[in-house]
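Hi V.,

You were right to ask for the full record rather than a summary. Here it is.
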Amino acid sequence: MNGQNRADVTPGIKVAVILKKDQRSGTKTEGVVKDLLTNSSFHPHGIKVRLEDGQVGRVCEIL
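Predicted structure:
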C-alpha cells in the first residue's frame, strides 16, 4: 500500500515516510506512526504523519 488513503494509515503501524528535507533525494525513513496530521481522506503525495521519534513526513509505503 502506498499511504495515500487516510483509512489505511493508523497510529501504531510501521511505515516508510519521506521527510521534507529528503523530498529531492527521495530518501525513505522508517518508523511507527504516532499522529496523523492530514485531515483529508486522500492525499496524492501521501498522508502526513508524525512518527514516534517526533519526525514528520509523508507516508510513501506501509510496511
